[in-house]
């Protein structure tokens, strides 16, 4: 693979966006490579969690404006409809957003436009002090279309979603932490180690329980309280695994 580096170690999938000369902007080639990676990650029973980060100074600058934005500008309604189930980042923003295993974003630099949406699509976000976030789509005559509004609203609430979306302003890692968009801010050289720490905590838990909890959290969004409580109870008490971390004893 050229645009993505994919490595596996200690039950963790490492996914490095590798178009540093273009701030890791997503083109069709990267999208296709990531789609294959997510398929492998989901199917590989030796992998319990994934860490996504960017090579170079950026996490991801969103869609490659030179090659991908013109396709959308000239798209018909049928063209758009045909892509509803294939979102950014190999579909992890939409279409592959129900991966059963946790995905951690190690945000090493700029996560803007679709790159912000990609980070929000991950289950946990750790930010370097050098990270910045922003809804930059607004400057190009479009707003978020890959979960940016939906996930911002769910994670940070109406006021923050209105603020960041309508202004398109850039925020730093500390403000992202204050707005509950990231779990932790660390020095740049501690970023991957911290992401690995979170992955290790996940790996230390029962795999069936982790998968069920993630499913339950996603299914509870927008539910009436009574329905959400029933869903939580049923999933919790029906997810017991015979063996820790999947099946075979360690």
From TrEMBL:
Instruction: Name a Pfam family for this protein.
Output: ECH_1
InterPro entries reported in the protein's UniProt record: ClpP/crotonase-like_dom_sf (IPR029045), Enoyl-CoA_hyd/isom_CS (IPR018376), Enoyl-CoA_hydra/iso (IPR001753)
Entry-linked CDD domains? crotonase-like (cd06558)
An example Gene Ontology molecular-function term:
catalytic activity
- Of which family is this protein a member? Belongs to the enoyl-CoA hydratase/isomerase family.
User: Cross-referenced PANTHER family, in alphabetical order?
Assistant: ENOYL-COA HYDRATASE (PTHR43802), IP11341P-RELATED (PTHR43802:SF1)
Quote the protein name from its UniProt record. Answer: Enoyl-CoA hydratase/isomerase
* Species whose genome carries this gene: Flexistipes sinusarabici (strain ATCC 49648 / DSM 4947 / MAS 10)
